[in-house]
Design brief:
five-stranded antiparallel β-sheet, 11 strands, binds fe (ii) ion, DH200=94 genomic scaffold, scaffold_6681, 25% strand, Jelly Rolls, alpha+beta, Oxoglu/Fe-dep_dioxygenase_dom, Iron_ascorbate_oxido_reductase, four-stranded antiparallel β-sheet, binds 2-oxoglutaric acid
Length: 186
Amino acid sequence: MVKMLLGILIGNLGVTLDDSKLESLIGTKLVNMNFYPTCPNPELTIGVGRHSDMGTLTVLLQDGIGGLYVKLEEDALVGRKEEWIEIPPIPGALVINVGDSLQILSNGRYTSAEHRVSTTSKQSRVSIPVFTAPRPTEKIGSLPHLAELDGGALYRDVIFQEYMNNFFGQSHEGKKSLDFAKINAN
Ligand SMILES: O=C(O)CCC(=O)C(=O)O
Ligand SMILES: [Fe+2]
């Protein structure tokens, strides 16, 4: 399913990647099982702090409790201020998150979802994300066709293992990890 989704998302940008390339871009797969116990003072705790997932696409199953928030970036063009919106649990629905690797490959046309989780004082929560990410040896950077169309690459080529080392080598601060691959990050 993830391979098909990725093929469609990249295809919509006018780039066709063959099956083995798509496979390489989601070749690392990891399942987490998150348990968030109840917390008497949810406002004083962080369930999961703000971050984006480092991989390509994340498929997330959450129970019915809620508490997952995604940041909508400020957009002056449409007069929107930065806002955190809750992703309500819908029975039988999966949440699909764009990760940093897809942001890099798409030259920023898809942006990774910055998200966080808050706990509640009444009910514990369980979520199961399935992360897909490039193979550790895979080189990722802005896809050349998109860099050309956009008048330049926003991201340099990095070996995914290096991106991962950097991601886990520092504490998460929103989407700061992306700076590692950004050209002209300041
Ligand atoms: O629990 C959730 O809904 C999200 C967890 C998460 O963001 C993560 O494990 O990366
Ligand atoms: Fe996450």
